[in-house]
């Protein structure tokens, strides 16, 4: 269920944000805002049925009439109002901490939370509390699907990785070496998915936290791609270590370059959505070169059988589809406001990433089985 409610006029986040950053409001401006402060903050919070704090504040609200003759008081009024606003801010943070907040529409989000303007309702408000952010995992809003798709994916790959590491050594040609190269893939996948669900969880905390975690999230994608190359190159060039090491170095250099680019602050902005998709797509598609190398040296038949090219192609299709949906914001661009909670492009992209990583693991498992079947030797006789 979409929890979004009719929030009416909500010019709320801006004043709260300025206050949170320690800004003392301009007295004239403050006077204009003072009268409707309660309507500004009200829509975000679930009104408690009984609250001694509210009573406390409502008593203070009537305080501006009886002593207005006093000129000294008039002079202190702006300060008192600023203090009052701070008290309200503290109350708001306290309520957020307790989990009493409501989802808000896109147009009242602060700029740093505005990412996809096709998602009209159901956004979390800025919540400067990690406890509140983590509790929001269990609430319904625009990030719920993004968090759970990669949280469950992360648990799945963690279990799969542990299971793989405990497979009997007798099913490998070189157990330690093979478990290390496949382990690098699992590490990349688990880091990518962990950084991703953590980013989506704390994204609404504050501008600074969102920026740090978005950089981790993008770095995680590069780590997944780099980690995916390791076992695939190892098995594909098992009998030809020179290209294996060259391609390994190349993908590490490209992956590190992608991580460096993703540390750039503007990389995370909505305007660079297409560029982001392009960077990671290019990193993944750099795998076309070693694939062509394999096809040319081994022939198409061997590439399709022992090279597991079919699974690699399926993986590439999944990643490309996911990146295309992400960059073009499909389907929400065709149904603005209809995919706010479920089935928006970022969620679909997450599902395609998990599916792509699993298909890659399946292809690598087949490569490993083939290597075990033919034994560790590399002469033509042994391979037949
Ligand atoms: Zn994501």
Automatic annotation (TrEMBL):
Annotated Gene Ontology cellular components are:
plasma membrane
The answer, when asked if ATP-binding is one of the entry's keywords, is no
GO biological process, any:
vascular wound healing
Q: Where are the transmembrane segments?
A: 147-166, 181-204, 216-238, 244-262, 274-296, 308-328
The segments labelled Disordered in the record are 1-70
Q: Which UniProt keywords apply?
A: Membrane, Metal-binding, Transmembrane, Transmembrane helix, Zinc
InterPro entries the UniProt entry points to: AdipoR/HlyIII-related
Q: How does it sit in the membrane?
A: Multi-pass membrane protein
GO terms for MF: adipokinetic hormone receptor activity; adiponectin binding; identical protein binding; metal ion binding; signaling receptor activity
Q: Where is the composition biased (Basic and acidic residues)?
A: 23-34, 54-63
Q: Answer yes or no on keyword DNA-binding.
A: no
What compartments host this protein?
Answer: Membrane
Query: What Pfam families does the annotation carry?
Result: HlyIII
Residues annotated as binding Zn(2+): 200, 346, 350
Q: Which family does it belong to?
A: Belongs to the ADIPOR family.
- Which PANTHER family has this protein been placed in? ADIPONECTIN RECEPTOR PROTEIN 2, ADIPOR/PROGESTIN RECEPTOR-RELATED
Query: This chain belongs to which protein, by name?
Result: Adiponectin receptor 2
Q: Which gene encodes it?
A: ADIPOR2
